[in-house]
Design brief:
The protein is mainly β and 141 residues long. The chain has helices at 14-17, 78-88, and strands at 33-46, 52-64, 71-75, 99-109, 112-120.
Length: 141
């Protein structure tokens, strides 16, 4: 007999089946989430075609994944990096300790509409709740 919960008691989604160390739009659960930047750096990431690319990655003070307590990270695309820089300056190290708001939306990527994460800096948060529930691999957004 398996120790896994039955699908009768858990809403099983593909994201739950394949946890990621990177924040996905589904992790936000339809909420705006205010987070404090803890670290900004570059990381080599494997794309879906197997090639590697170096991308900027942000870690947050508040975001630890359950159940592993590993730090979840946000892979920055140009749109989100520019949004952060617009309020917090062009020097990434100056972002440390600053708050940003992540929210899920839809955007055109690779020729189709897909879920994505966008960044706001400042302003009110529509719903501020703990986003840490369940755990999309990086696909080169």
């Amino acid at each position: 007999m398996s120790n896994l919960p039955s699908t009768d008691t858990v809403q099983m989604t593909v994201d739950l089946m394949f946890p990621s160390e990177y924040i996905r739009a589904s992790d936000l659960q339809g909420k705006d989430v205010r987070l404090t930047i803890h670290r900004v750096g570059l990381q080599d990431l494997k794309k879906t075609d197997g090639t590697e690319v170096r991308k900027p990655v942000v870690e947050f003070k508040q975001w630890l994944s359950k159940p592993t307590n590993e730090q979840k990270k946000l892979v920055l695309n140009k749109t989100n990096a520019q949004a952060i820089a617009s309020n917090h300056g062009n020097i990434a190290n100056d972002w440390i300790g600053k708050d940003i708001v992540l929210y899920g939306t839809q955007c055109l990527a690779f020729g189709k509409m897909t879920d994505c994460i966008r960044v706001r800096t400042g302003g009110a948060v529509a719903q501020e709740e703990d986003p840490l529930a369940d755990d999309k691999p990086y696909e080169g957004e």
